[in-house]
Amino acid sequence: MNSDSDEHIFRDTFVRIAGVEAESSVDGPGLRYVIFTQGCCHHCPGCHNPGTHDFYGGQVTDLWTHTKALRANMLLSGLTISGGEPFLQPLPLALLAEEAHRLGLDVICYSGYTYEELRYAADTGQNVVKLLQQIDYLIDGPFQKELKDISLSIRGSSNQRILVMKEGYMTEELGELK
C-alpha cells in the first residue's frame, strides 16, 4: 500500500477493540504496539482478558488511528494482535498487519483457535487466510487453566504453541520467542 494515497482505506475500515498498549515490552520481543480485540467465543476459564469476551463491549475504532500510531513511533519492533479473538475480525487486522510489515515491523497474533482450525477455516473460503498471510508468529490454542505455566515465554498454558508463519502456513514451532 502507498501510505499517503491509501489513507482513505484506513479511515474507512473499522475494528472493535478492548484497548491498546502503545509501548509494551511484555507482549513479544522488543517494543511493541499491542491491540486487544473485543469479542471472544472461547470463554476460557481463567482467561487473562475476560473483559474482552463481550461482542458489544469495547469501542469501534478506525484503522487510521492505529496506522498513525505505528508510523509515529520509530522505536517499535512489532505489532502484537491479542484478544478477545482476533480471527473474528480478520480483514481489518490483516490490513493493519500489512501496514506493519510495510513499516518493517514483525507481527505476532494470539488466537484461541489452533493453527489446524484456522487452516481449515482458511481452506473453506473464510477470510481467515488474509490475516494468516500477514502473521510472522502465531500463538495458538485456548488457554487451559490446568496447564497454566508462568515460566513459559509469552504463553499462558503449555498447550499453546509459538508457530513461525510464512505466507499463511506454519513452518516451525518454537519453544520460546526472543
Verbal overview:
With 178 residues, this protein is α/β, with parallel strands linked by helices. It has a single domain, classed as Aldolase class I (TIM Barrel, Alpha-Beta Barrel). Helix content is 24%, strand content 26%. The chain is built from five helices and eight strands, in the order αβββαβαβααβββ. The chain has helices at 7-11, 63-72, 90-102, 115-123, 128-132; strands at residues 14-24, 32-37, 59-62, 78-82, 106-110, 137-140, 161-166, 169-174. Strands 3-1-2-4-5-6-7-8 form an eight-stranded mixed beta sheet. The longest helix is centred in the middle third of the chain and has 13 residues, at 90-102. The radius of gyration is 15 Å and the shape is globular. The model has no long low-confidence stretch (mean pLDDT 91).
What is the residue-averaged pLDDT?
91
**What's the total count of β strands?**
8
How many DSSP helices?
A: 5
Q: Radius of gyration from the CA trace?
A: 15 Å
**Helix-strand category:** alpha/beta
The strand line-up of the biggest sheet is 3-1-2-4-5-6-7-8
Q: What gap, in angstroms, lies between the N and C termini?
A: 29 Å
CATH architecture: Alpha-Beta Barrel
Share of residues in helices: 10-25%
Any idea of the CATH class? Alpha Beta
CATH T-level fold name: TIM Barrel
Counted up, domains total 1
- The ordered H/E elements are HEEEHEHEHHEEE
The CATH superfamily name is Aldolase class I
* Global geometry: globular
Strand content: 25-35%
Largest β-sheet summary: 8 strands, mixed
Sequence stretches where pLDDT stays below 50 over 5 or more residues: none
